[in-house]
Design a protein that fits this description.
With about 230 residues, the chain is an alpha/beta fold. It has helices at about 40-45, 70-75, 95-100, 115-120, 120-125, 135-150, 165-180, 195-200, 215-220, 225-230, and strands at about 1-10, 15-25, 30-35, 55-60, 65, 80, 155, 185-190, 200-205, 210-215. The structure holds adenosine-5'-diphosphate (ADP) and magnesium ion.
Amino acid sequence: MLNTTSLKAAYGAVPVLLGVDLALGEGEILALLGRNGAGKTTLMRTLIGLLKATGGSVTFAGADITNFPPHDIARRGIAYVPQGRGIFPKLTVAENLELGTRSRPDGRSDVPAEIFDYFPRLRERLSQSAGTMSGGEQQMLAIGRALAGDPKILLLDEPSEGIQPSIVHQIGEFLKRIVADTGISVLLVEQNIDLALATADRCIVMEKGRIVREGSVEEMSDETVMREFLAV
Ligand SMILES: Nc1ncnc2c1ncn2[C@@H]1O[C@H](COP(=O)(O)OP(=O)(O)O)[C@@H](O)[C@H]1O
Ligand SMILES: [Mg+2]
């Protein structure tokens, strides 16, 4: 579904991605783990065209989309929920969700009703300013907004960051349900190992701009592996 080959990216003269090979399958939840500074966010920004690739390629559903403009990549069906959520705090929940529909390929602007099945809380809060909600509710809104664009792939950058544990668990359950219902693929960047292992089908570990390990959730649950690659 989404593949990269020897993908490279840099900030100015400083290389950050040193050649990333990644394959995200249809209907798969792939967890991307790694220490702070490994390049996880940089990889996501490069995938959606916010940062120029300096080498290698990104293909989506067989088409080369390397360095396509972000709006084009969004319209093709790759949605991105950035680290820190990226919602508009002054706008209402309804307005945030409507903005999400702008990347729909069919041009419709109604918010799909299923979003409120996943996140009933959002329906109760439609007229509330997004910035006045709890961190967990804002994360639900950020995911809901991404889903409003009817994506085929969801890129989530540390959705558990700054959210209370009970909500973190709920977000994992939502993700599994969304994938089971819709067949979309999810690339989940996480520092919360428990959430990653509870949610993902497969894990990859990034270190210094490269993927250094790949394995099933069972393999990655092994504590020595975790200690070796993720000690923070
Ligand atoms: N806007 C930026 N300008 C320059 N360097 C950056 C920028 N963003 C990140 N970096 C550097 O790129 C490397 C990877 O960062 P990042 O992709 O944010 O890592 P992660 O998401 O895995 O914590 C780090 O060394 C970081 O300092
Ligand atoms: Mg990051």
